[in-house]
Specification:
heterodimer; A: 380 residues; 8-stranded mixed β-sheet; 21% strand; B: 279 residues; alpha/beta; two-stranded antiparallel sheet; 10 helices
Chain lengths: 380, 279
């Protein structure tokens, strides 16, 4: 018998679903919203086949609440949404960060503000993913730029959520979500899949939010013994609300440390033609694909020494690599589908010797190769 | 008399008592009744999950030695839905207040009623927002005074039973903090009910609601509950006009309908069998 092929032509949204299932996702709660709905539709078919749970909740607030409830009970849980729904989810992203609950939140970016452009692309939620919640926050945000990456980054999003006990955001843009591309689904076990660690101590020594050097404190699921309290109030190591200054600071330091300590492992990036580059483009997602042709064209036609820096993980921003690179270049172009968001990270990290230019498009269409080339050639 | 319960076994001793509640508050009475009910039905501590939102009543779970999840304002039922669906064998109980369940959480309670998911929800209704210092709530009576209805409340109040009944709840009981034995029995029945069960407990907030409405003494408020309570069987025989300002107590609704997490499990079983037979 002929072996079943593992080569597919599929959308980024579909690849995200396959990635989730590959990673062992067994719970999805969501609310319909364009352009992310395919993720919910496909999971409503696939999860019941595998004994998983799919539920369409009454709104996005309830969706992330159900996801976090399931995660506390031991599920590998995910939700998917877009701009307005992502706004509604911010309070629970905040809760998951404080209470240290693993979850994957997919935001397929569409044009905003408000209801905006439901079917048209944008990258205008970059800063919402960074600063959307109230309170100090160190998010983990992944931005795939292709259908295969949509698969792989979803697996990685689950791995990071489970090992770091934190919500992880997968930032797709409408183009990546709806574009069809070839993908080879890897066989089982080829891509690493990890599950959350369990406490190594007996119940009587167990503290659910113990202050550890790594900032990570393994917690079992509800129903496995080890009865403990989870709260969004600032809490002590037992999970009980506290207003003791030392305990408050220790908790917030722990949350920050557990992400930033692992920054070098988390913050992956892609760099092309950067070795001799005197100019560089910074871009993520669909725009970075346009930029790949742009740098080739500019190198071939105009002999420009130009490269591309593409954060695969937007937050924590690949700071070390970016600083290193920005030191060596004269001009930095930040191309994005918004009025200028990613550029803030670049401005923060670039030395004053580098000139920074924003190349922005926010009219509901993807930026073209010509537009970027013109902008770069016109820059003085 | 209920059987003897060792309340102490159910409390978290590492947690610093006393509670955050004011003297004379009804929340402690409900906590006491909840412990006795859980003990009496024989649920194991490891299988009980208490979920709460935000407000005075929602502070209850932290004192109790179960799996406890203190969530965001109004969303406890949505969190509980995720827990129940993923681990249907867990006994999921939501502790909430009138503002938490019926104002900010109104959307979630009606949909939980509609789904008939196996969660017991205890609504401690004290007619006011206590935690934030005494603001008007969806159950504040028309004309009553709070710090955000200083000239008297203009809005009519929710009838919690009619709301839940209309949305499809399969069990609804109402009692007060005066009727403690009845409260224990109603919580027991709710815990054993298959499907979404609601127990509304009329409770006193002497510090805010009482002081602002000429009942600063908790005993006066509890006495009022005693005098105003009418069992549902009696109330059904009386003309509607005579029921104004009365508290209709009892099991107002109890019916058997398929429970959502069970329905979901059997659907999953059917679908996965179909998939297997296709292979």
């Amino acid at each position: 018998m002929k072996e079943k092929s593992n080569v597919f032509l599929m959308q980024g949204n579909e690849a995200c679903v396959h990635g989730a299932l590959y990673a062992g996702c067994n719970f999805f709660a969501g609310y319909p919203i364009t352009p992310s709905t395919e993720i919910a539709e496909l999971l409503s078919r696939e999860l019941p086949k595998r004994g998983g749970v799919f539920i369409q909740m009454e709104d996005e607030i309830g969706s992330l609440a159900a996801v976090l409830g399931a995660s506390v009970a031991g599920a590998k849980a995910m939700t998917a949404t877009s701009g307005p729904g992502f706004s509604l989810m911010q309070e629970h992203i905040s809760y998951a960060y404080m209470a240290e609950i693993p979850a994957v939140i997919v935001d397929v970016m569409r044009g905003g503000p408000s209801t905006g452009l439901p079917t048209l692309p944008s990258q205008a939620d970059i800063m919402q993913s960074r600063w959307g919640i109230h309170g100090d926050y160190y998010p983990v945000v992944l931005a795939p730029a292709s259908v295969p990456e949509s698969f792989l980054f979803t697996v990685r999003a689950f791995n990071l959520a489970e090992t770091l006990f934190t919500p992880v955001i997968l930032l797709l843009d409408e183009i990546i979500g709806h574009m069809r591309e070839k993908i080879i689904i890897p066989p089982e076990q080829q891509v690493e899949v990890v599950s959350r660690p369990h406490p190594k101590v007996p119940d009587e020594w167990f503290y659910p939010y113990e202050i550890t050097p790594s900032g990570i404190s393994p917690r079992p699921s509800f129903g496995e013994g080890y009865r403990y309290n989870i709260t969004g109030l600032t809490h002590d190591i037992s999970g009980y609300p506290t207003s003791v200054p030392k305990e408050i600071k220790e908790k917030l330091d722990k949350l920050k440390r557990k992400i930033l300590n692992k920054r070098d492992d988390i913050s992956t990036y892609d760099a092309e033609f950067v070795d001799d580059a005197r100019e560089i483009i910074v871009a993520i997602g669909s725009v970075s694909r346009v930029c790949r042709s742009v740098i080739r064209e500019l190198r071939k036609k105009y002999r420009m020494k130009i490269g591309l820096f593409r954060p695969q993980v937007v937050f924590p921003f690949p700071e070390k690599a970016a600083r290193e690179l920005f030191k060596r270049v004269k001009k930095i172009f930040v191309a994005e589908l918004n009025q200028g968001q990613l550029i803030y990270e670049v401005e923060r990290l670039a030395p004053s010797s580098a000139k920074i230019y924003g190349i922005n498009k926010y009219d509901g269409e993807l930026i073209t190769q010509e537009e970027i080339i013109d902008a770069i050639r016109e820059a003085d | 008399m209920p059987e003897k319960t060792n309340i102490y076994d159910y409390l978290r001793h590492k947690k610093k008592f006393p509670t955050v509640w004011c003297a004379g508050c009804g929340n402690g009475t409900v906590m006491n009744a909840l412990i006795r009910a859980i003990d009496s039905v024989g649920f194991k501590k490891d299988e009980v999950v208490l979920v709460s939102g935000i407000g005075c009543s929602s502070r209850m779970p932290v004192y109790l030695d179960f799996n406890t999840l203190h969530t965001t304002h109004g969303r406890a039922i949505a969190f509980a839905t995720g827990i129940k669906l993923f681990k249907p064998h867990l006994k999921v109980i939501v502790i909430t207040g009138d503002g938490d369940a019926l104002a900010i959480g109104g959307n979630h309670i009606i949909h939980a009623c509609r789904r008939n998911i196996g969660i017991t929800t205890i609504i401690i209704n004290n007619f006011i927002y206590g935690m934030t210092g005494g603001q008007v709530s969806p159950t504040t009576a028309c004309g009553d005074y709070t710090y955000t209805s200083p000239y008297g409340n203009l809005e009519p109040q929710f009838d919690v039973f009619r709301l839940c009944d209309g949305a499809g709840a399969t069990f609804f009981a109402r009692t007060t903090t005066y009727h403690v034995i009845q409260l224990i029995n109603f919580i027991k029945k709710a815990l054993l009910h298959t499907g979404f069960s609601v127990v509304e407990v009329i409770s006193q907030c002497p510090t805010l609601y009482g002081r602002l409405n000429n009942m600063p003494n908790p005993v006066d408020m509890i006495r009022l509950f005693k005098n105003n309570a009418i069992p549902v069987s009696k109330a059904r025989e009386l003309p509607t006009e005579s029921l104004n300002n009365k508290i209709i107590t009892g099991i107002l609704k109890e019916e058997n309908k398929p429970e959502y997490s069970e329905l979901y499990s059997s659907r999953v079983k059917r679908v996965s069998e179909e998939v297997k037979s296709e292979r």
